[in-house]
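*** Backbone structure tokens ***
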Amino acid sequence: MASRLTAEREAELYESVLDLLREVGYDALTMDAVAARTRSSKATLYRQWGNKPELVARALRHNKPSALHEIDTGSLRRDFHELVGLEDDCKLEKDSALMRGLMHAVHDNPDLHQALREVLIEPEITGLDQVLRRAVERGEVRADNPALPYVVHMLVGAFVARQLVEDKAIDKAFLGNYIDAVVLPALGDPV
């Protein structure tokens, strides 16, 4: 996307989109509301992002603290814990609530589903695959480990299950413990 917006302006706009999503949800979010909140024109929004699903997906992508594939500490356990360390509990809670709301909207909005897959989910899966591939290359995880294709499911499950099962917000302590107790043992407990 060729952007005529400054990086600062784009970041401000994305944060406003996420704030609106938290306030009103995906279905009630409109390009008019985004334009008003960000003091932009709808024409600018459509020119830059094309549609609401793309704008929402890009805002979520921008909100990610780091690209997973960039984390390489030399140890799978440290890679996972470094990823957790990039977050803070308040942001994790806000983001998991936001994602739960979007998951509901995905069922009724195939364009949103497609935009989230292309902009947010597939890059994360690719990054996770690279982290896991490096662990296999270092000999930490067997290449034929049957849990490898399910690591992303385990991690997503942690976000969904904590609120559902325990009625508690996701936090760094839970994620760190979950990685050590569930994910790493499933991969042969790499140290």
